[in-house]
């Protein structure tokens, strides 16, 4: 989403040329790091997931390179593994957005006129209103929802 991928600099929004995703990682000894998957928008899902796993493991071992801690255009955080259902994240300036994911929980859900139980995750978006607005955020979350429901589109 172009209106969320970039930085607030010198009093204005500067769109980024690449999608560089910061991934919030809780450290076992306490604290938080957000290493970056550079050019994430160009990676196929299997490569993206392999890089994510590698970054998380190395972050927890203290083995990240300096370049892996710079350049995020957007951060993603998830506290689902800690049982948190809804995440209200804090933007890391100069970024203008952070996407949060909660735990996947089973909920009653109506589909095609039938009530059933299905896995549901809550996604939230924190955005800097100097750079964007709620309509852009709504379109972004709608796109995330569509991709989660139709992963073959990735």
UniProtKB/TrEMBL annotation:
UniProt keyword terms in alphabetical order: Acyltransferase, Transferase
Pfam family for this entry, one: 2-oxoacid_dh
Domain named 2-oxoacid dehydrogenase acyltransferase catalytic: residues: 1-154
GO MF term list: acetyltransferase activity; lipoic acid binding
Reported cofactor(s): (R)-lipoate
One Gene Ontology cellular component annotation held by this UniProt entry: cytoplasm
Protein name: 2-oxoacid dehydrogenase acyltransferase catalytic domain-containing protein
The organism of origin for this protein: Streptomyces alanosinicus
């Amino acid at each position: 989403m172009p209106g969320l991928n970039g930085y607030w600099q010198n009093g204005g929004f500067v769109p980024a040329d690449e999608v560089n995703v910061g991934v919030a990682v809780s450290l076992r000894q306490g604290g938080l790091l957000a290493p970056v998957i550079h050019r994430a928008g160009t990676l196929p899902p299997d490569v993206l997931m392999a890089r994510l796993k590698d970054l998380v493991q190395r972050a927890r071992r203290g083995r990240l390179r300096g370049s892996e801690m710079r350049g995020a255009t957007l951060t993603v955080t998830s506290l689902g593994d800690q049982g948190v259902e809804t995440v209200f994240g804090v933007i890391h300036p100069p970024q203008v957005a952070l996407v949060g994911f909660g735990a996947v929980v089973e909920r009653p859900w109506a589909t095609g006129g039938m009530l059933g139980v299905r896995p549901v995750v809550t996604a939230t978006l924190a955005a800097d209103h100097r750079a964007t607005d709620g309509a852009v955020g709504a379109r972004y979350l709608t796109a995330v929802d569509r991709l989660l429901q139709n992963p073959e589109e990735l």
